[in-house]
Amino acid sequence: MNLENQTAIVAGATRGAGRAMAIKLGETGATVYVTGRTTRQEISPMQRKETIEETAALVKEAGGIGIPVKVDHTDEEQVKMFINKVNEEQNGQLDILVNDVWGGDPLTEWGKDVGDHNLQKGLQMQKQAVQAHFITSHYAVPLMKKKNSGLIVEVTDGIDYEYRGNFYYSLAKISNIHMAKAMAEDLKDNNITSIALTPGFLRSEAMLDLFGVTEENWKEGVKVEKHFIASETPFYIGEALKHLALDPDVRRFNGRTLSTWELSDIYGFKDVDGTQPHWGNYFKKHVEK
């Protein structure tokens, strides 16, 4: 099976999980619109070197069609113009929407409670990680309704409603979970599947830089954070998304929050190094006390 005739949007595909998910959809032959704020001409407040043009090129290299579009998903007018572009270029067809906009790492003040955390940073996090998602869904869903089918994926962190160590971070990630469930209910008569998807301990470009390691010597990062030993590359969640997109019975997951480790058990896929990281088991044994 392949997705050669399908159109996907990965919102927030400049790097990390978003980039990997776009590439994996490219492997299926899909046409993938990759959005973000960093281009070859302009860098975002994240101050990272990765660009949406690079992601689009990697999608093409993988076998798909990659289309980079600079979009700030917190800006309603930009999102509206972007969805109109997709509508016009793809004759109204949109099959997959991945809401992966985040950018909250520099906004999270770990160790500070709701009264001490910078309020403006907390509000900005909700704007980027929550409002951006439902603004994008608001304009994208009508395209799916026309075809009476589609897959919406809300990328989150964690599988439950438990506190995640920071008020604003927790609020954002749990909101993503509930948005997926709420859209599943709203759109159940339109044959549109909506799920939340979480990685485990993500070994992203930013995390590698934070720990001062590369993908080649990443295990040295355990000296900084012992639980890094159970980390996974962004391509693991990319594989998870690819298998969901190719699954003819994906609606059995409608409204659920899924994880890379659960889906690797179901579909049998592996990370790039041939392993099957299982953050759920690791967390219960080594983190949860």
From TrEMBL:
Pfam families membership: adh_short
Coiled-coil stretches noted in the UniProt entry, renumbered to this chain: none
Alphabetized SUPFAM superfamilies for the sequence: NAD(P)-binding Rossmann-fold domains
InterPro entries linked to this entry: NAD(P)-bd_dom_sf, SDR_fam
Protein name, UniProt field: NAD(P)-dependent dehydrogenase, short-chain alcohol dehydrogenase family
Species for this entry: Alteribacillus bidgolensis
